[in-house]
Design brief:
Number of domains: 2
Strand content: 15-25%
InterPro entries: DNA/RNA_pol_sf (IPR043502), Retrovirus_Pol_polyprotein (IPR050951), Rev_trsase/Diguanyl_cyclase (IPR043128), RT_dom (IPR000477), RT_RNaseH_2 (IPR041577)
Enzyme class: transferase
Helix content: 25-40%
Protein name: RNA-directed DNA polymerase
CATH topology of the largest domain: Alpha-Beta Plaits
Number of helices: 8
Number of strands: 13
Strand order of the largest sheet: 4-5-1-6
CATH superfamily of the largest domain: Reverse transcriptase/Diguanylate cyclase domain
Distance between the termini: 55 Å
GO molecular function, one term: RNA-directed DNA polymerase activity
Radius of gyration: 23 Å
Structural class: alpha+beta
Pfam family, one: RVT_1
Length: 281
């Protein structure tokens, strides 16, 4: 459909949930379930007019899809809209396309919510891929992060690929590495400050790998080996915002202090200053 149907479609830009939204939903749980829909799009029925647009010609005849096929550009947004409309009224539940995440404070709470979700899926005649579903777990893995009742942690095996990266040989490789590191920015204290030499190496599309770049590259990989776990934000605890600045970057950490006086980070943030910002007084 890349050269036939897709160029003529108005793409449904219904938003996928941001990772922060998923974290915010699942922070309410001590027990978790993950449901995976079988063949995702192929369970979303098409109306007659849409079916006609999916017509394909083969040596065995002409066929039309009755359900949303893969490869249609409007698929992700349309399917997310469909699933969100069906399940958005069920609390402690969030959908990312064909993955449904559910949490509960107790096993009973989770069972009650799970029954509501399964009832709704049954009404819509949606089927699950049972072997990929997880039920009543004390932790749940979401996009490279492990969520428990108290914390969010990075799944270590997902870091291994970054740790095995050799020093970039060109701007494309460097930008790819920086993009992967940025995915874990919330776990990295003063990340932007550490990466300043690498950011500067991407300026004006001139690749000039220096000793400072090599030092920053090795230091950020070292930091990735000892990432701190993050606490779920608790509005009932004291909230602490700590800020720092250098000539080249800004940094901050948002933390909670628990009832025992222990301070635990919720998230780190940092930003490299551009040449104009560096002149601010």
């Amino acid at each position: 459909y890349k050269v036939t149907l897709n160029p003529n479609l108005e793409v449904d830009h219904f938003p996928l949930p941001h990772i922060d939204e998923i974290f915010d939903t699942l922070k309410n749980g001590q027990y978790f379930c993950e449901l995976d829909l079988k063949e995702a799009y192929l369970q979303a029925p098409l109306d007659i007019q849409s079916q006609e647009l999916t017509t394909i010609v083969t040596e065995n005849g002409t066929f039309q899809y009755q359900y949303l096929p893969y490869g249609v550009s409007t698929g992700p947004g349309s399917f997310q809209r469909l699933m969100s409309n069906k399940l958005s009224q069920i609390s402690n539940t969030i959908v990312f396309i064909d993955n449904i995440y559910i949490c509960g404070q107790t096993v009973g709470d989770l069972l009650e919510t799970l029954c509501k979700v399964l009832t709704k899926l049954q009404e819509c005649e949606f089927k699950l891929k049972l072997e990929k579903c997880k039920f009543f777990k004390t932790s749940i893995d979401v996009f490279g992060f492990r969520i428990t009742k108290n914390e969010i942690n990075v799944i270590k095996k997902n870091i291994e690929t970054l740790l095995k990266c050799e020093a970039p040989k060109n701007i494309t490789m460097l930008k790819s590495f920086l993009g992967k590191v940025n995915y874990y920015a919330r776990f990295l204290k003063n990340m932007a400050h550490i990466l300043v030499p690498l950011y500067e190496c991407t300026q004006k599309n001139k690749f000039n790998w220096t000793k400072e770049c090599d030092k920053a590259f090795n230091l950020i990989k070292e930091k990735l080996t000892s990432l701190e776990s993050l606490r779920h934000y608790d509005p009932n605890l004291t909230l602490i915002l700590t800020c720092d600045a250098s000539h080249t970057a800004l940094g901050a950490v948002l933390s909670n202090r628990d009832l025992n006086g222990v301070v635990k980070p919720i998230a780190f943030a940092s930003k490299k200053l551009n040449s104009t910002e560096q002149k601010y007084s």
